[in-house]
Structure formats: structure tokens, C-alpha cells
Amino acid sequence: MTAATAPAGASPPPGADDIIASAKSRMVQVYGRTEIAFVRGEGAILWDTGERRVLDFFSSILCTNLGHAHPAVTEAITRQAATLVHVSNLHYSAPQARLAELLTALSFGERVFLCNSGAEANEAALKAARRYGHAHGGRFEVLTALGSFHGRTFATIAATGQEKVRRGFEPSLPGFRYVPFGDAAAMEAAIGPKTVAILVEPVQGEGGVNVPPPGYLAELRAICDRHDLLLMSDEIQTGCGRTGTLWAYEQMGAVPDVMTLAKSLGNGIPVGAMVCNARAASGLDLGAHGSTFGGNCLTNAAAVATLEVLSDGKTLPRARAAASRLRAGLEALQTKHPEQIDEVRGLGLLLGVALKDPERAKAVAAAALDQGLLINLTADRVLRIAPPLVVTDAEIDEGLAILARVFAS
Ligand SMILES: Cc1ncc(COP(=O)(O)O)c(C=O)c1O
Q1: What is the CATH number of domain 73-310?
Q2: Domain 43-69+315-408 indexed as CATH 3.90.1150.10
Q3: Predicted structure pTM score
Q4: Which of these, 200, 208, 218, 269, is most buried using a 10 Å CB contact count?
């Protein structure tokens, strides 16, 4: 454990009460938060202001797939911060060029647009789709899935198949329609004369860790080929090794035209990317899109380091082994408590435990945190369990033991 030490004479760091009261009184109150303030982390462990050790099985909403304070990422951002933090996109820089090189070498991609978040990556994808559509028959409509989540900007709330994210922000951006997730025939039936693209998550994350039936993405690929549509895969949550392969599409027998990334791409440093083939990129010509900080040296150095670790040949096999162990433990829990647990589902280390009762699900998440295990509740009754890929067997067993106590209580 590497405790951060305050410089001599510095005032003591604020306690949880001060941090929480300060944030509550000044910040826009858009987040439902648990009353805990974290000060540092290492691997799968977080420490709060009171030095309480918490097992992090949420990876900060799946943003720290390599665990907290991964040495390779820390070293890369430290070196880059001392060298060059930012240059504009009117010039070139090495971290940006290297990131684009890695993203294309490690995927189907031929072209990359770099940005700062998931919503921005999806904005770039949606703009690419509209440019492509306008040049190919005057089309603009994008089909997405019910229960999906694609971000919080105006275009991405319009793309998101959940009414609650659009409520109060009407009028919604036109050009989107929603189709039940996992139903390829319904998707094909929904195609109209103005449809240009399908945007889906390979596994829905925020929607409740929903895994589509086998062959779904491959069927969507065939549909897109039949109708000259772009297949756009939102891998913001499923990418970067989370599902056991670098990108989830690799397990689904389909190659998309566009893939969007963010969250763990910089292992906690805000960086996003829209990766696409030349066809999808064809409409994004000079001046069509941009971002001041997209391709920033510091964030891109973090992403380069993250991808180098993820592609080292050891990290992903280890993540798959961890996923098997954790899933087996969760399934054993389900066998023991069928009156509470409906289903264990997910892919790799993106796992969901669907409970029968939302109130019980809330109580389980709260009791787990009381006992030192951080998990997340999504879609009302689904415990989302997503430790970092570097989680150890001992940590998995510790997390499972906490859950076993909580479910038995
Ligand atoms: C699948 C998916 N797409 C897009 C987003 C939006 O990403 P961001 O919050 O970085 O804008 C998220 C965030 O949860 C997500 O899970």
C-alpha cells in the first residue's frame, strides 16, 4: 500500500463531512450519491477519508479496467505532464498519432476521431452517419435499442432508448427510433426509407447488463449489409477488455462499421474515440467536426499506456479467468438464494445479478458497502458487478464472501 503523504506543515486533508457538505451546497444536484468520499486507490481497492478499505467491484462506472493507480498509466501521464500537456489540432503530436495507430492496429478501424467522453464519441458517430446518409440517398435516421444508454448530450439522449433521460428536455432531436433489444427481425422491420444506421451496445450496461441472444450482432451486420446501413457499436462500456476480449464485437461474429469508446480507454483519464472504417468516415471531411481537447497529449498518453497493457497477452487471459471464478461464485449464490435472485448474466467481468425485488436489491448494495464491497445498482433491481480486470482471486473470494453474508442476512 502506498499511502499519499501530505507535505510537512500542510493543513490536514478535509474529512468526509466537509467534502460532502461542500459539494452538496455548491454542485448541481444531478447525481444520487452514497455518503462516502474516496481519497486514493490501488488496484481493486479504494480508501475513504477515514482510511476504510473498500473492495471496488464497480471500477468507477467501468472506467478503471486496469485498477486504480496502474503503474504503467501513472508513469505515462507523469512523463507526459512533464513534457507536453496540450497542443491544438492545427498541429500534430506523438501521443495522438500513437493512439490512432494502436486503435486501428488492434481493431477493424481504418480511421479514428479522438474526443473526451463517451457522449462525444457517439456524437461523432452520429455525425458520421448523417454525413454518410445525406450523401447516399438523403437519409438521416438512426435506429437504436430500447433500454440502451448512449450519453447525456442532446443527440445522445435522443439516441438513448429510455424516455427518462429525455424528460423535460423536449423537443427531442428528430431522426431516432427505438426497437426492442435483441430482436434482429424487429430491427429489420423498423427500417424506413430514411434509415442510415443502427447504433447498439453489444451488451447493454446501464439498461441492466442485458446480453442479447447469440448471433444478434451478426444478424444486425447482415441487415446493415442488405440495406446499406452503417452498423455502429457502442463499446464505451463493453470495450477495453471488460467482456474478456479487447472489444466485445470480437466474440459476436460481426465487425461493425463504427465503434465508440471512452470510459476505460484512459483507465480513468477522460478520453474517448470514434473508430470506423473508411466508408463510415467518408463524410467527415475537412471542417466537418472537431474538438479542442480531442487528441490531447496527456489523455492520449494515458490511453496509449492502457492499450499497451491490455494488449500485452497476459491481461486479457487473466481477466477471463477472473470472470469465470466470479461468475461461478455468483451462480452458486443464486443456487443458494433462488427466492431472492432471478438471474446471473453478463459477459466477462461485466456481470449482473438480477434480483426479484428492487427494495431488496437496494438493501443488498447498501449492506455490501457497509461491509466493504462497492457494487452498483442499475435498472432498479440489477446488481452490476464489474471489478477491474486485475482483480486477484483472493479479492474475488473476499467479495463473494461479503455477498454471501449479505444475502444470508
Ligand atoms: C454504453 C454507453 N455509451 C455512452 C455513455 C456515455 O459516456 P459519457 O458519460 O462518458 O459521456 C455511457 C456511460 O455510461 C455508456 O455506458
Answers
A1: 3.40.640.10
A2: yes
A3: 0.96
A4: 200
